[in-house]
Amino acid sequence: MPQPMFIALEPDPHLTQFLLDAKARAHRLVGDQLYLSDPPHLTLYLAYFDAVEPVLERLHTLKLPKIQGQILGWHIFEADVLTGRNTLVCEIDPQDKPALRGIQQQVIDAIHPLRDPDATANRYAKSRANLSIERQQAIDQVGFPFIGEDWQPHFSVGSILPNDWPPVWHELEPTPPPREFACPLLKLYRLDGITPVLVQAFDIAP
């Protein structure tokens, strides 16, 4: 049976700890919310695959450049098109996005042919009507709605129900994220329900 997997960049220890602290603070206020319990990461691609070994083989062939950049502060995806909630993320400097988009493209080129197209598309069936034509076409072509110039790379804290949002924002707004970041690891996760389970990590050139 096809299983959902996603490929992500892991932030450096300083940003990782900041995100873990922010997630914990939000959880103390409003309890379980989407993504709050996820390990800090920047998602590059998500799809359904029949087997993990071919995905790992393709990822092993990638030669990724050093990944570093700057964060401008907080950003909110209000009424997130996939969750319907407010998703709080670290906003990456636009100057650093082209390099991250290039890395995303490398990952997609390497593994999207391995995906199960029907199972992957079905993941977005309920939210498809809320997606732009461009994002619907991306699902059909590579299996992931956010690609290329349309993709806004980010590190998430969590996706918060609207009624729970005000206290979370009041708590976290005065504490902006670190200014600089790096990503030393590429990671493959499988999803057990909504829980990410690490499959393997890959070192990125220092």
Question: Which secondary structure elements does this structure contain, and how are they paired or packed?
Answer:
Elements: E1 3-10, H1 13-30, E2 42-49, H2 52-60, E3 68-77, E4 86-92, H3 97-111, H4 117-123, H5 133-142, E5 154-160, H6 165-172, E6 180-182, E7 185-192, E8 195-203
Antiparallel strand pairs: 1-2, 1-7, 3-4, 3-6, 4-5, 7-8
Helix pairs in contact: 1-6
In short, what is this structure?
This protein has 206 residues and is of the alpha+beta class.
Describe this structure in words.
The chain has 206 residues and is of the alpha+beta class. It has one domain (3-203): Cyclic phosphodiesterase (Cyclic Phosphodiesterase, Chain: A). Helices cover 33% and strands 29% of the residues. The chain has six helices and eight strands. It has helices at 13-30, 52-60, 97-111, 117-123, 133-142, 165-172; strands at 3-10, 42-49, 68-77, 86-92, 154-160, 180-182, 185-192, 195-203. A four-stranded antiparallel beta sheet has the order 2-1-7-8. A four-stranded antiparallel beta sheet has the order 5-4-3-6, with helices on one face. Strand 7 and strand 8 (195-203) form a beta hairpin. It is globular, with a radius of gyration of 16 Å. The chain starts with a strand and ends with a strand. The model has no long low-confidence stretch (mean pLDDT 95).
